[in-house]
Recover the amino acids of this structure.
């Protein structure tokens, strides 16, 4: 049977992708930021997951204002990197896992999560930057990916608690897939950042670090954080952290923190990254 | 979390220097944001760069939205229903990074904004709530 073995959370800042693509990760500005992912790259090479369920948000790339799905799951064979206005990233195509994705989609709908099903789309930095951070610059990505896109742009996005429950339902769905697969779930985005208005540039290290800490120490607190708290404390784009709770919800009660990294700034944003191992 | 949509939305207006992309803004800015999306295509970027006024004539935008676009007044564009991820197509076409474009909304010089970020970013102290001044 398929099983979720670990959860990974990471920021997905577009400039991280650019730094990787242009081989700038050794420059002074980037060295400390990327160094926090060195351990992760070694760990992923040992873990060799078969599939990553990659929770992210689209940034006006595949979805415009015509259609705004709250939760969408990619069931396609493959996805191309999106042209976000400056040409697509030169990274490999993302290979899907349609059998697992359709299985999860069907289970979620019966479990009362009414998913939008996507067969064709391009994937933007929200999805491809985490792949670069975890795997570097391979000729092909070493995993298959089930994209899970969440609306965190048009209000209201889903609540943190709803995200958590979706994660629980994803775990149940994966566990009923008959093929023997090592599956990781990644939650991406965050941490504190605001990209708009006179308050742009807001960073809240204290709040971010308490969030990282409570992913293991007090996850029940995180489920109940209202949108207004994310907005006031972590900037208008910090709301992306509700996507980390899908990852956390999928791991169950017992997790062990394996690795953590926090760095300010990358562009306008606080970089946060954590690896949680699922325990029985 | 409040389940009353009126209470939920009313709290957003209490955050200093921030425009939350609510349904009302999404409606007001629908065509503005879809115009921005059109710049995802290289041939449209070329047409836009060749003549902004004639390209804008194809879109049902208000005079205010057109003027704010021509002026690259991003705070004004947010007020007129623009969303930052959509507006990013405009400043990317101009060759600006997020830091360069975002700094124009803060009233700071880009060098000062970058220095603030390197020093740890803008503190949330004093900019969490207008009414509570915290």
């Amino acid at each position: 049977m398929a099983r979720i073995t670990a959860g990974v959370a990471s920021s997905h800042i577009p400039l991280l992708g650019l730094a990787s693509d242009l081989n700038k990760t050794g420059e002074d500005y980037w060295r400390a930021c990327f160094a926090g992912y060195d351990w992760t790259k070694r760990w992923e090479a040992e873990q060799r997951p078969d599939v990553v369920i990659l929770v992210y948000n689209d940034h006006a790339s595949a979805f415009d204002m015509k259609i705004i799905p709250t939760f969408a799951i990619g069931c396609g064979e493959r996805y191309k990197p999106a042209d976000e206005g400056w040409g697509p990233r030169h990274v490999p195509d993302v290979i899907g896992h349609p059998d697992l994705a359709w299985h999860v989609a069907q289970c979620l709908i019966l479990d009362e999560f009414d998913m939008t099903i996507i067969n064709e789309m391009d994937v933007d930095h929200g999805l491809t930057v985490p792949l670069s951070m975890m795997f570097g610059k391979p000729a092909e990505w070493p995993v298959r990916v089930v994209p899970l896109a969440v609306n965190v742009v048009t209000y209201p996005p889903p609540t943190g608690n709803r995200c958590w429950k979706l994660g629980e339902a994803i775990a149940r769905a994966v566990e009923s897939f008959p093929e023997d697969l090592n599956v990781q779930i990644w939650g991406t985005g965050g941490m504190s950042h605001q990209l708009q208005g006179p308050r742009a540039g807001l960073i809240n290290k204290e709040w971010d670090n308490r969030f990282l800490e409570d992913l293991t120490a007090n996850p029940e607190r995180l489920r109940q954080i209202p949108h207004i708290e994310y907005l006031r404390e972590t900037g208008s784009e910090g709301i992306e952290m509700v996507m980390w709770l899908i990852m956390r919800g999928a791991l169950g009660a017992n997790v062990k923190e394996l690795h953590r990294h926090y760095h300010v700034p990358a562009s306008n944003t606080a970089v946060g990254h954590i690896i949680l191992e699922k325990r029985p | 979390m409040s389940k009353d949509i009126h209470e939920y939305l009313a709290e957003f207006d209490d955050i200093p220097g921030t425009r939350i992309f609510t349904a009302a803004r999404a409606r007001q800015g629908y065509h503005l944001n879809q115009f921005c999306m059109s710049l995802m295509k290289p041939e449209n970027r070329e047409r836009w760069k060749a003549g902004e006024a004639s390209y804008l004539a194809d879109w049902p935008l208000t005079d205010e939205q057109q003027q704010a676009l021509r002026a690259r007044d991003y705070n004004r564009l947010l007020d007129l229903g623009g969303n930052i991820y959509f507006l990013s197509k405009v400043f990317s076409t101009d060759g600006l990074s997020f830091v360069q474009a975002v700094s124009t909304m803060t009233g700071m010089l880009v060098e000062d904004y970058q220095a603030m970020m390197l020093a740890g970013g803008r503190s949330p102290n004093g900019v969490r709530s207008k009414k509570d001044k915290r």
